[in-house]
Amino acid sequence: MNMVMLMFGVVIALAAAVRSTWSPCGQSMLSQITPVAEAGRGQRFGRTAAWFIAGAVLGGMTLGGVMAAAAALVRVADLGAGATLGLVAFLALSGAAIDSRVLGFGPPFLPRQVDEDWLAKYRPWVYGGGFGWQIGTGVTTYVMTAAVPLTIVVAALTGSPAAAFGVGVLFGLARGLAVLLGLPLRTLADLYAFHRRFTAWGEPVRRAVIGVQLAVAVIAAWIATPVVFAVGISAGALALVAWDRSARPAPTRLVS
After folding, report:
1. What's the rounded Cα separation, in Å, for the pair 84 and 9?
2. What are the percentages of helix, strand and coil residues in the chain, rounded to 5?
3. Which uninterrupted H or E stretch holds 27?
4. What are the sequence ranges of the domains in the chain?
5. Per residue in 177-228, pLDDT tens?
6. Read out DSSP for 36-90?
7. Which of 60, 97, 108, 139 is deepest in the core (most CB within 10 A)?
8. Is the Cα dihedral 127, 132, 137, 140 positive or negative?
């Protein structure tokens, strides 16, 4: 059961990290920490990107430490496989519903942007590492998907501090590595073209992350919960997919 929970944690963490790249902070990093921008500041992209990734991993370690402490408490509580998987199924379905806005509300949450004034004030190791840490923690800037808090809960529910810490590090690393998407961008034309493509992928990624949460919900429900509960979760997932396909995504106003 621990291995199953760890797999859920890893899958959700990666999905949450990918979706989070479409936050205002993520998009800012993909425009401000690029070979083009760093050359304009007289800095080397490789060095700044390395600091950013290191900071993001440290941020993931910070998040992982909190999740590890929670996992230790869960281990003491000993919820049992059925209750744990049932809770994961319910929360994953709820997360997908929140991301779909079927409940009338949804992300982004925590509308806080990194301070771009750092770019002009500090050395690359400060703004690169500092921005990376904030993004790597997942909860100090914009939260673009319910999969972020779901990652925290599922990691804690593994009941393994080591596994929970590892999920946090993986989340931070995945968020940090996103900065390398800017590696091929050598001109302003490259940058503009990239961001047009990046924006176009936002909606497909949002739907894919909803799909990941629904898949986790259904699989968890059918592993070790009563059939009635599993059928209910599956029906809810199918209804949510149908609703999300028919509904036009509500426009969101992102405040920086």
Report:
1. 13
2. 75, 0, 25
3. helix 24-32
4. 2-246
5. 999 998 988 888 988 999 899 999 999 999 999 999 999 999 999 997 789 9
6. HHHHHTT--HHHHHHHHHHHHHHHHHHHHHHHHHHHHHHHHH---HHHHHHHHHH
7. 60
8. positive
